[in-house]
Amino acid sequence: MGKYDKLKKIELHCHLDGSLRIETVSEWTGKQEDKVKELLVSGSKTKDLNDYLKLFELPVSLLQTKSHLKEAAFELCEDLIKDNCIYAEIRFAPILHTSKNLEIDDVIDTVLKGAKRTFLKFNLILCMMRNMSFEDNKKVIDAAKKYLGKGVCAIDLAGSEENYPTSEFKELFEYARKNNVPFTVHAGEAGSHTDIDDAISFGASRIGHGIKAITNFDTMENLKKKNIPLEICLTSNVNTKAVQSYLDHPIKRLIDSGVEITINTDNRTVSDTTLSKEYAKLSKYFGFDTQDFYKSNLISLDHSFLSDLEKKELKEILKENYEKTLP
Predict the structure, then answer these.
(1) Phi-psi region at 43: left, alpha or beta (left = phi > 0; alpha = psi -120 to 50)
(2) How far apart are CA 48 and CA 239, in angstroms?
(3) Neighbour-count burial of 47, counting CB atoms closer than 10 A to its CB (0-12 exposed, 13-18 middle, 19+ buried)
(4) What is the model's pLDDT at position 229?
(5) Which of the 8 DSSP states describes residue 192?
(6) What residues does 11 pair with on adjacent strands?
(7) Are 24 and 37 in contact (CB under 8 A)?
(8) Contact 128, 169 (CB under 8 A)
């Protein structure tokens, strides 16, 4: 058991399709587990975000049936529970799972059913995709509005930042705001600080990754002024070469500058990680301790898409757990 396994944790940035169990994919495909690992796990073989995103082609192709979607959601929630996660916001792009016979509603309903088979407290975040049409992404916003408060808490924008700048999605986020659908946005991962600036101007509650904020003083000041945290995914950022090594990651400099951060996995399988592993790496490379993890989890709760009452209840659970381990 690892040093941080027993700590209670909050996960705000975890992709369903990037977190399938190796043995389950082996069973679905008939491929040996070693071969599945070669196909799914990034390790050090991906050279950039676009290369990393190619690893999702196989899982997305497999998640086209109700049975596979239900099993994937169930197993991810089970794995999060094993990681001592007490609340998770799980994200995926429902429209990517409609290439056969499923409609968007079928996909969402099925994922909800699978996740609800466990006792994990969770919500879903529905991703729009940068490479998809305006109309298709609008359908995602409409679906989020329909399921808001019924297992869905927000939308997101994911995909290749370099090829599809955040600025191009202003109208969609205006539509989301008019419909009172909250959102987080992948920005400042492979793009630049201007992608973060655009996401902030659209009304984003959080920024997915956002590490390019470190390159611009005004961007960091704006994040602080508007109380917008970054969803940091350390290992993923190394895998996508958003940073060249763990020690190059700006997480410590961002915190020292006053920017709030949350700690997340991004893709548990593709990046071969867990929250406990992320904590261990942050401890190893930056000297983070239990107090730092307690603080980051409180920030995660504060900026989650939960009600105030739910946040209060989970804070009590965190407090009780961390009081046993804090000096």
Answers:
(1) left
(2) 8
(3) exposed
(4) 98
(5) -
(6) 88
(7) no
(8) yes
DSSP string, 222-238: HHHHTT--EEE-HHHHH
Query: What tokens were used for 213?
Result: 């904020």
Lookup result for tokens 């082609």: 57
What single-letter DSSP state applies at residue 159? S
Instruction: Look at residue 188 in the predicted model and tell me its pLDDT.
Output: 97
Q: Is the dihedral of CA 200, 163, 255, 265 positive or negative?
A: positive
Q: How far apart are CA 224 and CA 213, in angstroms?
A: 11
Confidence of residue 94 (pLDDT cuts 50, 70, 90): very high
Per-residue b or e along 158-183, where b marks 16 or more CB atoms closer than 10 Å to that residue's CB: bbbbeebbbeebeebbebbeeeebbb
Nearest partner of 216 among 253, 168, 163, 244, judged by Cα: 253
Q: How many residues does the chain have?
A: 327
Six-digit token pair at 160?
């290749």
Query: Helices marked H in the chain — which ranges?
Result: 22-29, 33-40, 49-53, 57-62, 66-82, 104-115, 134-147, 170-178, 193-202, 217-225, 234-239, 251-256, 275-286, 290-302, 308-323
Candidates 250, 201, 243, 244; CA nearest to 225 is: 201
C-alpha distances out from residue 229 to 207, 238, 299, 311, Å? 6, 20, 8, 16
Q: How confident is the model at residue 327 (pLDDT cuts 50, 70, 90)?
A: low
Q: What is the mean pLDDT of the chain?
A: 96
| Catalytic residue set | 189
**And the tokens for 220?**
């960091």
Question: CATH homologous superfamily for 9-323?
Answer: Metal-dependent hydrolases (3.20.20.140)
Domain ranges across the chain: 9-323
